[in-house]
Write a structure and sequence with these properties.
alpha/beta; Alpha-Beta Plaits; 2 domains; Rossmann fold; 13 strands; 11 helices; 4-stranded antiparallel β-sheet; 322 residues
Length: 322
């Protein structure tokens, strides 16, 4: 096996809808690969094809060295999967579910109990091991789902938006566990719509939109390629055009959140005072201003023309027009 995950020309159609449109992927051994994009971009569909839950309409993929169509059984034995919509029996205890998962993978009772105890300890559920899962919080369920995906010691782990809906503390705990697993050599394929999550965990990211990968690389390299800091200014709707006339002298327009104006500030932070003076001299009343270093949201905006966070398609433009 050259790479834990390889895909070429991967396509998935649902009737007339093209959910995934010719995706190529190579994930290296032992890395955390982040798959970043908004809801409906095709992230989960790709995960379902790579984990044999969906058959590709076209293209091919190999996971853990096995073809996802012709050798689906071998793929399933080699991977761990924690899906965002995983069904967990609420009437069983955490310990019982781990034991059942082990039996399904052909692990004997003694070894199943040993692995269950280790995994419950690792994900912080030892004290709740004999409680029914129906009494677990959302964060506890996600951590149990992670433990279930690790029972058979997979070489490749798929995490599909693992922290959606979690509180900040639970999210940080799960991040630490992902880092620990990766440190032990597990290759992790992580889909997320959270910019901070991709930035914190992934060594490389692919940004997907409309079923296509629009950017791919190391997070810092992608951010550096964006260039200038983003200046975001909030003014009253009545003064948008006046503010736009002043701002465009300092940099090119960038997509911004609804109700804001944004530019790439060509001269960097040192130009901020000059921008504010120009706005004041023009009679623009600034309600809020912020200057942000390049982020993955800027990378997404540069690639797609809209923000991943805080804006709907077509909302954001410097002069307030769609």
């Amino acid at each position: 096996m050259t790479h834990p995950i390889e895909a070429e020309g991967l396509v998935r159609r649902f009737g007339d809808i093209v959910a995934v449109d010719g995706v190529d992927l190579v994930v290296e051994q032992g890395e955390i690969f982040g798959f970043l994009g908004p809801n409906g971009a095709g992230k989960s569909t790709i995960v379902r094809m790579l984990t044999t839950l969906l058959t590709p309409t076209a293209g091919q993929a190999r996971v853990a060295g096995f073809d996802v169509v012709r050798e689906a059984g071998a793929v399933r034995r080699s991977i761990g999967v924690a899906l965002q919509d995983a069904a967990i029996d609420p009437l069983m205890t955490g310990r019982e579910l781990l034991r059942l998962q082990a039996v399904l993978h052909g692990i004997n009772r003694a070894e199943a109990d040993r692995r269950g105890d280790v995994l419950l300890e690792r994900v912080g559920l030892r004290g709740a091991a004999d409680r029914r899962v129906g009494t677990y919080s959302g964060g506890m369920r996600r951590r149990l789902d992670l433990a279930l995906s690790l029972v058979h010691e997979p070489t490749v782990l798929f995490l599909d938006e693992p922290t959606t809906g979690l509180d900040p503390t639970s999210r940080l705990s799960l991040w630490e566990e992902v880092r620990r697993l990766n440190g032990e050599g597990t290759t992790v394929f992580l889909t997320t719509q959270y910019l901070e999550e991709a930035d914190e965990l992934a060594g490389r990211v692919a940004i997907i939109d409309g079923g296509r990968i629009v950017r791919e690389g190391e997070p810092n390299a992608l951010k550096d390629a964006v260039g200038a800091h983003t200046l975001v200014v909030t003014v009253s709707h009545e003064q948008h055009e006046l503010a736009f006339d002043q701002l465009r002298a300092f940099g090119d327009a960038r997509p911004g959140k609804a109700g804001t104006l944004a530019i790439g500030l060509d001269a960097g932070p040192t130009a901020l005072s000059a921008v504010l003076r120009a706005l004041e001299d023009a009679g623009v009343s600034v309600e809020h201003v912020e200057l942000d270093a390049p982020s993955l949201d800027d990378v997404f905006a540069e690639a797609t023309g809209r923000r991943l966070e805080g804006a709907e398609p077509g909302e954001a433009s410097l002069d307030g027009r769609s």
